[in-house]
Amino acid sequence: MNSLFIVWSDSHKSGVPILDEQSRCIASIINSFAYLHTGSGTEAALLTVTTAEMFYHTAGLNFFTLEQLMFESGYPHLEKYEKLHNKLRQALKQVVRKCRTEWSAAQLLRFMHAYWSEFIIAGERPYTTHLRAHYENACLLERKEPQKSKETLLPEEQFALLLEKTLDAHRDYRQKQRLFESPALM
After folding, report:
1. What is the pTM (predicted TM-score) of this model?
2. Tens of pLDDT along 5-20?
3. Which tens digit of pLDDT belongs to each residue from 67-107?
4. Could you tell me the residue ranges of all domains in the chain?
5. In sequence order, which residues have a C-beta less than 8 Å from that of residue 159 and are 6 or more positions away?
6. Would you say 72 and 176 are in contact if contact means Cβ atoms under 8 Å apart?
7. What is the DSSP string of 40-108?
């Protein structure tokens, strides 16, 4: 198989760079699995479980990032999305369990593609306009990268930068959230 299962295009962009990077990462996981999943036996089963776990953790990073951006921007439906994300986290845990016991590689691939279509591409649209408008003047969408250009970064370096940004953003979000939950403010 030489073609990509999901071909990234500008139509997939949300206009929020960190979310777009994470979406491309999820597409990459799906494409890599689609390319490698042929075969059967122990190796195929291990690849299926490993991919499901990686997909679960990557989607979790996407949820945390999105919730943090919504919190910072004062998105009015944050609570609704936090509930949805919690349901999705539980569903993704079930997928990992199923991959350990009963699901084939083809079933995981169908699930990941459906997830991509329903929650990454279609699911981002309701709030991206709000996020873009909020951050447009604050220049938070286009954070400066280190001196090394993205084209010269190795994939591992790009992933490390993405992970670092996401964890920093999540840490900031949790600190701000604790501030608002402080007894002194109640």
Report:
1. 0.68
2. 888 888 888 888 888 8
3. 999 998 889 999 998 998 899 889 888 988 888 888 888 88
4. 13-185
5. 25
6. yes
7. -SHHHHHHHHHHHHHHHHHHHHHHHHHHHHHHHHT-TTHHHHHHHHHHHHHHHHHHHHHHHHT--HHHH
